[in-house]
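Human
Can I borrow your eye for a moment on a structure tokenisation matter? Give me a protein, with the fold worked out from its sequence. Write it directly below this note and I will take it from there.

Assistant
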Amino acid sequence: MAAGGRGQRRGRLTGLAVALVASAACMVEPVGGPAEPTGQRQSASPSAEVTRADGTDTIEEFRQDMADAQGIAERYWAEQFQDSGQSFRPIRRIIPYQRDGEISCGGQEVPRNNAVYCTVSDFIAYDINWSFRAFRQIGDAFVFYLLGHEYAHGIQTRLGIRYNFTIQQELQADCMAGAYLGDSVRAGWLTLDDGDLDEFNEGLLAVGDDAGQPWFAEGSHGTPEQRSEAFFRGYERSLSACGLG
């Protein structure tokens, strides 16, 4: 997957009427939930203790893909908001971390092997070693999905969207990540390589809930099949398939 040139704008973005819940609890499930930084931190660098490679396997390529994913997400959502006559604020910070307790949310530590969005302080944090392993084991397309999903949570916050059940919030974020990527490909901002769609699917199947997880439980994200279906629905049909637009 590669970043491309500037394309045309997509359609309008409108708010979605949903039930609000008064919950500020941190979710620390993989690929979802808020977090807050604590203490001083240094620039994180991923370890190279993995061997799988699909042509994009270096730390430099990983960092470039994360930067490209962030830049394209900011461009995409800025244009969606502009087309709707709304002002857009990019997510304040995107923070790599390496250790348990390095990032916390309201006193609750975020463990390793995680990526989260912070509603309180408006940033994304991701375990750089876990993300780099996924990058090498699944492929470079996965980091675009990973960033896109967390960015979608930031957009939900900006639009005031809050569902009664976590799974609804998470599956909509998967759909919005799919829309951001599909629209960016159609606009010429991203170019898919052979196998990228399979990488998206493989990554989504890998982050689904375990069998037996109740759909109504706090922290539920959806089965592997539900997550893949939501993502590709947005990828193919844009934000209208996610209850937006």
Remarks:
- Residues 6-43, 47-54 have pLDDT under 50 and may be disordered.
- Residues 2-7+27-39+51-240 form one domain.
- Strands lie at 2-3, 36-37, 93-97, 103-105, 108-109, 115-118, 123-127, 190-191.
- The two ends are 26 Å apart (CA to CA).
